[in-house]
C-alpha cells in the first residue's frame, strides 16, 4: 500500500512539473512515506529524518506522510523542529498546499474518507505490476495492531472507481493487478441501486481485460474467505495460485488474546477448500511470536501449524508493543531474548519449508512475469505464479511473460532458462 501511495505522490508532483532525484542534497522537496506497524519502523523514521535534516539544502521542504505521521502527530514537529509537513495516510493529497505556501507548516492527520484516491492525477505510465487499493482501514481491531488508529475504520471504494483505476493501469502498461486492502477479501460495496459488489466481482471483471494476464490480492483475513472467492481460484485461470492469509499464531488461547476470532479448525478448513478448488495453490502467512502471555506450549502449536500447512513464504516478527493497542498494556509481556529465540526457531522451520518447495520446482516450466534487471545488470528477475524470485541470464528484448524452465533452487530464489 505504501508503494502505491508513493507512486501516486510522485505522479502528483511530476504533474506539477517536478522531476525525481535520488540525491537528497539536490532535492527541493523530500517526502518520507512511513509505516507504523512495528516500533522499529517508527524508530527508523526519526533516524532517517535526522539524516535528511543534515544532508538537505536549507531551502528544501521536507516532511513525513503515512502512518507514522498519524501516530506521532504534533510531537513530530517537536522532535524535528524544521519539518515542513506532517500528513497522515489519508491526507497526502494536500501536499500541493505546502508547495504553494512553503513558509507555512502543514499538519493534517485527520482520518478522512476516500477523497485522496480521486484528488490525485493518474500515473501516465503504469508498472507491469499495478497495485489497486480497494479499501482503506480495518474493522477487526486485533489487539496488537495500530492500523485502526492510523488508517481508521474500514471503507470500501466504489466498484466503478476500482475498475476505472484497473482499466487505466491496463491501458498504460500493467500486466498484473494486485488488489490491496488491510482486509482485502472483506471488500463490500453497495451502489445507489442496492447492487452489492465483492472482491470476486472485481476479479471477474478484471479478468475480462485483455492486457491483464495475472491477478492477485493481499492481505486476507480468514473469516472473510467466502465460498464465492474460493470458487474464483477454481474458475478463473488469471487468478494466481497463491494466497497470503495470515494466521499470526497456532495457539487458540493466543488467537483469543489477539482478538482473532477464528478457530484453527476453521482456518484449516479454508485451506482445504482452497486446495480442492485449485490443487496447485500455495499459501503464505504472517506470524507474531512472543505475544503477551505466550507459553512454550503456545509457541509449539505455532510451529506445528507452520509444518502442517507448509507455508511457502511467510513474514514472521517478534511482537512489538504499539501505542493505542490493548496488547501493549497486557500482563505477562515476553522478554526480548525469549522472543528472539522463538523467532529464530520459527524462521528456521519456515526457511526449510520454503527451500523444499523451491527445490520441488526444479525441472518444471513456469510462466513468469518480468520484474527487471538485477543490481549487476547481468541477470533478469522474474516472478513465478507463486511469487518466487526467478533469476535468468540477461538478454535483449526479453519477453514480459516468459515460460522458464527451472534449473536450480535455494531458499531465497530460483534459477532458470527462458524457453523460446
How are the secondary structure elements laid out?
Elements: H1 2-15, E1 29-34, H2 39-55, E2 61-66, H3 67-72, H4 75-79, E3 85-87, H5 95-100, E4 106-108, H6 115-119, E5 129-133, E6 135-136, H7 147-150, E7 155-156, H8 159-171, E8 176-180, E9 188-190, E10 196-198, H9 199-206, E11 214-218, H10 227-235, E12 242-244, H11 252-257, H12 264-277, E13 282-289, H13 296-309, E14 313-318, H14 336-360, E15 365-373, E16 379-383, E17 389-393, E18 401-409, E19 414-418
Parallel strand pairs: 1-2, 2-3, 3-4, 5-8, 8-11, 12-13, 13-14, 17-19
Antiparallel strand pairs: 6-7, 9-10, 15-16, 15-18, 16-17, 18-19
Description:
By secondary structure, the chain is α/β, with parallel strands linked by helices. The protein has 3 domains: 2-108, Rossmann fold (3-Layer(aba) Sandwich); 115-360, tm_1862 like domain (pyruvate-formate lyase- activating enzyme), CATH 3.80.30; 365-418, Beta Barrel (OB fold (Dihydrolipoamide Acetyltransferase, E2P)), CATH 2.40.50. Helices cover 35% and strands 22% of the residues. It is built from 14 helices and 19 strands. The strands form 6 sheets. A 5-stranded mixed beta barrel has the order 15-16-17-19-18. Strands 1-2-3-4 form a 4-stranded parallel beta sheet, with helices on both faces. The chain has a 3-stranded parallel beta sheet with strand order 5-8-11, covered by helices on one side. The longest helix is centred in the last third of the chain and has 25 residues, at 336-360. The protein is globular.
